[in-house]
């Protein structure tokens, strides 16, 4: 069918040269197909010689239907006879010009073109007969021709609308342009290349419909605009293939023209966006995803319904590499700013809880709990995950940013804990549940540490998490240290009375230490494993170190064998007491350090001072970091060692090869300075193996 039902062109009386172009089975037929006005064996194509032949045979008609008298044959000069013969033929020209203009105004383009060509033929024949003399009466043909060209151009520029509403007008406009293209006259006039004007009009009209200035989105409206294009552009291509292409000759390559025009118009618009104000994170992400995936996907340019005639393989990328780099950098920068704000808000909310009158919240199992770790990881993980929808390069950028900001967050968290501890210990801002919130912070660290792997996308080197893991370990050590400092505040006054003669005769001093320690550690069970084991080991180590520090102060010198035996028994009793205490708190014996007291007991319990060298050598084998000062302090505690015996015992520290530290055993005596330092110098700095 040539046109949709109800859009048939009316029957028009045309010269034979236009029937060649008009009367066929379809709008555009192959050469050689017969049509009205083409005799047997004649070509049905739009060939110029054929049209010229028909043009010279055409009868020039005036608006009333009466023929113009034929002009006189051309001659070298205009004599009175020629003038008398020519003048009647020119009388209807003004009326014919006005009639042609009215046809143009009424969008009767084929009739207007016929009338224009008849007038131009009369002008040409008159020009030849008058010896190349131009007459003023034909001055209106130039503007008339341009008016028709503009009308043809306007009709073709509205091809999308006309193909649906008035395809006959579109066909007429294209046929006028095709008949006119390449036609030459004997007049000294440039050829009218209306075909190129039509092609330009098709492109400009298409761009105007979808990419006109008034249609471009404002701030925040980019996503809606792109979504509208996702629907409109495939529909436009379908219209071009189904409705517009049949109205145009094959060499117009309408589908390819449509695809390339839409692409170039869209590309130009996107370049304008890139050169304008910086986009927000959402717009940058939307544009990247749309250009790299939606536009090239099966719903648009990658559609299987889009045939090879669209030739989309030749389209240049919608976004250049520089555009992609700019958009990725913009997105990462904007997201970083948002992440910093969100993480700071999460930290501020957590810090605000630390001064509450209530203990920290707990989960159903009784462990201290806060939503902060989950919030932090969710913020970072979602930003990493969503970038996988765009490209690996963007995901790598956001992954690096997320780990960097997580490291900064952990440092801020640690600094906030230090300020919290300082203000509490100085009495500037006493926290009712100071230790409990430190324990809760340890659970937060554990939650982050156990879940940080969710920030590791596929294909990213495992070592990328190493800096964050190191920062988490440092945070754990910092929290443990703050807890132990609070424990020291509780225990240091008690250890000031140890050792003493009261200590020799009564277990009360250590009982007080154990009672205070048990009370301090009563909420440790609310800390999750493995952090609770680390914390208990550090607490036990702190108590033992304080015990050793007290022994080295020289506060007690045994006055005989009985007191030495009492001291030895007290060390044995205290070691057992401490071991039972921490076993009850949940610390396995293999992680405890109190057994060092049993080794020192042997040194005090030895009856023959001449054998001290063997005991000192054994002490050195177990604790390679023991020094002469430590041994001297212990010998002073015995109270029965002569100068020679002391020198002999100390010399055993240098005898034989230097023992290597036992695998998994940490330094102990090196943390016990002598003579007496500030008590806090005995604080440990790491986990007990």
TrEMBL record:
Role summary: As part of the exocyst, may play a role in regulated exocytosis of insulin granules.
Domain of life: Eukaryota
Keyword Phosphoprotein: no
Name the UniProt record assigns to this protein: Exocyst complex component 3-like protein
A molecular function GO annotation: SNARE binding
GO cellular component terms given for this protein: exocyst; transport vesicle
Family: Belongs to the SEC6 family.
GO biological process terms, semicolon-separated: exocyst localization; exocytosis
Annotated organism of origin: Hipposideros armiger
A Pfam family assignment: Sec6
Keywords: Cytoplasmic vesicle, Exocytosis
Cross-referenced InterPro entries: EXOC3/Sec6, EXOC3/Sec6_C
Gene: EXOC3L1
Residues covered by region (Disordered): 61-85
């Amino acid at each position: 069918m040539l046109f949709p039902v109800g859009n048939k062109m009316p029957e028009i009386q045309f010269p034979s040269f236009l029937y060649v172009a008009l009367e066929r089975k379809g709008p555009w037929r192959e050469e050689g197909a017969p049509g009205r006005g083409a005799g047997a064996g004649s070509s049905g194509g739009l060939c110029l010689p054929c049209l010229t032949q028909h043009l010279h045979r055409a009868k020039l008609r005036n608006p009333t239907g009466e023929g113009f008298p034929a002009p006189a044959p051309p001659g070298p000069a205009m004599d009175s006879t020629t003038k008398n013969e020519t003048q009647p033929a020119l009388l209807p020209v003004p009326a014919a010009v006005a009639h042609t203009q009215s046809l143009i105004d009424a969008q009767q383009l084929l009739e207007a073109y016929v009338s224009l060509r008849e007038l131009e033929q009369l002008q040409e024949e008159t020009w030849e007969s008058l010896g190349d003399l131009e007459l003023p009466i034909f001055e209106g043909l130039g503007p008339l021709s341009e008016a028709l060209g503009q009308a043809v151009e306007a009709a073709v520029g509205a091809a999308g609308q006309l193909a649906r509403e008035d395809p006959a007008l579109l066909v007429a406009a294209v046929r006028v342009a095709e008949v006119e293209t390449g036609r030459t006259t004997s007049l000294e006039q440039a050829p009218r290349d209306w075909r190129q004007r039509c092609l330009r009009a098709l492109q400009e009209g298409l761009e105007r419909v979808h990419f006109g200035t008034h249609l471009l989105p404002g701030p925040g409206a980019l996503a809606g605009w792109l979504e509208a294009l996702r629907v409109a552009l495939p529909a436009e291509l379908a219209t071009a293939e189904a409705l517009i292409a049949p109205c145009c000759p094959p060499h117009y390559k309408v589908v390819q023209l449509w695809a390339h025009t839409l692409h170039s118009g869209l590309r130009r618009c996107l370049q304008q966006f890139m050169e304008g104000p910086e986009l927000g994170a959402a717009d940058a992400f939307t544009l990247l995803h749309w250009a790299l995936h939606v536009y090239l996907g099966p719903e648009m340019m990658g559609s299987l319904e889009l045939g090879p005639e669209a030739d989309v393989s030749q389209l240049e990328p919608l976004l250049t590499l520089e555009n992609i780099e700019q958009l990725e950098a913009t997105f990462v920068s904007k997201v970083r700013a948002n992440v910093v704000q969100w993480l700071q808000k999460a930290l501020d909310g957590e810090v605000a809880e630390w001064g509450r009158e209530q203990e920290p919240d707990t989960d159903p199992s009784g462990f201290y709990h806060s939503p902060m770790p989950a919030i932090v990881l969710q913020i970072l993980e979602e930003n990493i995950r969503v970038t996988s929808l765009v490209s690996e390069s963007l995901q790598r950028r956001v992954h690096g940013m997320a780990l960097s900001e997580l490291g900064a967050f952990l440092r801020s968290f640690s600094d906030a804990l230090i300020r919290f501890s300082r203000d509490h210990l100085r009495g500037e801002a006493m926290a009712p549940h100071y230790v409990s919130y430190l324990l809760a912070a340890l659970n937060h660290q554990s939650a982050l540490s156990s879940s940080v792997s969710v920030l590791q996308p596929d294909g990213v080197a495992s070592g990328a998490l190493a800096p964050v893991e190191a920062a988490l370990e440092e945070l754990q050590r910092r929290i443990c240290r703050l807890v132990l400092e609070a424990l020291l505040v509780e225990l240091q006054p008690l250890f000031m009375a140890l050792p003493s003669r009261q200590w020799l005769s009564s277990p009360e001093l250590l009982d007080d230490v154990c009672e205070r320690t048990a009370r301090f550690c009563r909420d440790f069970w609310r800390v999750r494993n493995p952090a609770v084991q680390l914390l208990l080991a550090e607490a036990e180590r702190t108590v033992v170190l304080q015990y050793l520090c007290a022994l080295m102060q020289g506060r007690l010198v045994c006055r005989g064998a009985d007191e030495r035996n009492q001291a030895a028994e007290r060390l044995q009793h205290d070691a057992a007491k401490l071991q039972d205490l921490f076993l009850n708190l949940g610390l396995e014996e293999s992680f405890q350090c109190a057994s060092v007291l049993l080794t020192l007991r042997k040194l005090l319990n030895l009856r023959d001072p001449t054998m001290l060298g063997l005991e000192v050598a054994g002490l050195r084998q177990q604790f390679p970091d023991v020094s002469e000062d430590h041994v001297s302090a212990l010998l002073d505690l015995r109270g029965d060692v002569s100068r020679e015996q002391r020198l002999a015992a100390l010399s055993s520290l240098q005898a034989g090869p230097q023992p290597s530290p036992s695998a998994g055993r940490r330094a102990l005596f090196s943390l016990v300075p002598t003579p007496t330092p500030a008590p806090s110098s005995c604080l440990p700095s790491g986990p007990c193996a």
